[in-house]
Amino acid sequence: MSEIITGIGQAINLIVTFDPEVMHIAALSIYISLSATIIAALIAIPMGSLIHFHDFRGKRALIILIQTLYSVPTVVVGLVIYLLISRSGPLGFFGLLFTPSGMILGQTVLIIPIMMGLVISALSGIDRSISDTLVSLGATRLQEIVEIVKEARFAIMSAVVLGFGRAIAEVGVAMMIGGNIRDQTRVLTTAITLETGMGNFALSIALGIILLIVALIVVVALNLITASGMSEDVQKIAGGPHG
Amino acid sequence: MIRIERLKKAFGTKEVLGDITLTIKKGEIFTLIGPSGSGKTTLIRLIDLLDTLTSGAIIFDGIDTSAPEKGRLAIRRRMSMVFQKPAVLNTTVAENVAFGLKFRGVPEAEARGRVEKALDLVGLADLAGRRAVTLSGGEMQRVALARAMVTEPEVLLLDEPTANLDPVSSEMIEDLIVRINRKFGTTIVLSTHDMIQGQRLADRIGVIMGGRLVQVGSSAEIFYQPKGKEIARFVGIDPITGGRVIENTGGHALIRVGTTCFEALTDLPAGKRAALVIRPEEVSLFPADTAREKSSVRNQFTGRITRILPSGPFVRVSVDSGFILVALITRRSCTELGLAVGTHVIAGVKATAIHLIPDQE
Lengths: 243, 361
What we know:
The complex is a heterodimer.
Chain A: H1 2-16, H2 20-53, H3 59-68, H4 74-85, H5 100-124, H6 128-136, H7 141-151, H8 153-169, H9 172-178, H10 188-197, H11 201-227, H12 230-238
Helix pairs in contact in A: 1-11, 2-5, 2-8, 4-5, 4-9, 5-8, 5-9, 6-7, 7-12, 8-11, 10-11
Chain B: E1 2-11, E2 14-24, E3 29-33, H1 40-47, E4 55-60, E5 63-64, H2 69-76, E6 79-82, H3 93-103, H4 108-121, H5 137-149, E7 155-159, H6 167-184, E8 187-192, H7 195-201, E9 204-209, E10 212-217, H8 219-224, H9 229-234, E11 240-249, E12 252-257, E13 260-265, E14 273-278, E15 284-287, E16 299-311, E17 314-320, E18 324-330, H10 331-336, E19 344-349, E20 354-358
Parallel strand pairs in B: 3-8, 3-9, 6-7, 7-8
Antiparallel strand pairs in B: 1-2, 1-4, 4-5, 9-10, 11-12, 11-14, 12-13, 14-20, 15-19, 16-17, 16-19, 17-18
């Protein structure tokens, strides 16, 4: 119990004193996970829309596959990406192993399925009568898709927020691809693992609290974006002109 | 304006519309009536080119609509549709109304003015800034109407526009429909299961039953001269069956039903089986002791009242004279005549008020 109280005290101390190492770790966490979230969203929203708005053989099976991948263990993604980008792997020449870029790649791969799956269900949640209405009002296929994506904006934003949550909270990919190298690839989750292993429970708790605060800030920011200019953004992502 | 030729529509193996041929004239209000599930919505959706037909053709203003999607879009943009359950998008009322203009690339400044006018037309100018999803059902339907009218369509399609509304909102929507037709000359096709509404609004009525267009005509024709027993029942008349024409001299016929003889005007020759269609409001009732000769009414039958059913300011009185005749009279006459179940009365029908349908059975 005393460790928790000490940990909270230490967290406050680390935050108010802007401890350089902790700040660096937190900043790197945000940088990597947010980058992965943005890249994944840029892929998952159009791809999810493409799957939702087209009928093809095996669509149902594809959606089940995507949903299965929601629960893929982070270490499995870490392993696969490791094998791909290690020096002897097919993408070895990029030199991504043990770099933040490699971690972004890994987290992107990790969260694409959940984002894409939730984008598909967000779009399925829009009533058929909405698309009938749009078509009868003279919308082209593209105009119809853009308006439906806009109509689903709140649910789509939840998909993005959930993707970010999975990215910033995971430790498997960050550890295996990043390697937890001090000042280079150490992020909040890998730092917590390390400090706990070394018995520095108070510091671990402090880092855990900072992780939650970071998540809070990002989620609030994303929600503010949704509330204001989200519709324009989605439109750009969906690739459609206004009229 | 719209010509429909031998149209068929099947979903999988289930045929929902069969062999429909119909012409809708420019500037008229055409009402499709029929029971729920008879195919009205399917037909309206086909006219709006939302679905594709299985066979046959829809010709819009001389253009065959079986064109590729690009051509269909151009035709669709000359029409507007209001659905039974209005769907509004999660934006403001004004933005909802503006969609059609936005899709057609109308400049924003011009669109704003037109949206204002359209909202004014339906009496919702004050709600332009409201979020559309917070409106009541009646208001949403008016938004849907404004949204449909803002593009100045040549044809306005309405699928049961008042089915989910309270009487006050329904009346408002009906008034708007008539005003739009008179003011802009918009051709209107409206479906309803409410035959009285069809009668109120329509220049012409088409009756759809079981996926077939069974009769097209003026409201007087549909309501007073239904072509079949099913149609008669749908427009509120229970036909008297089992009749046979026993004599016909120059259109003036005698029809025997059981032991009773009716006089009626018909072209059916002697020997033909016939069902008699008599509108309840054409049946008058007299006290049983009235001298028959006093009345000019040719068909008079003594009978016993079996049922009295209130119907708004009227009552429906069923009289059993070997067959059931239903009379629609005012509450006041009912009281003045002292009618009750069991009372004997004379029911009278003029020969001109009886419509005969050939009967197969």
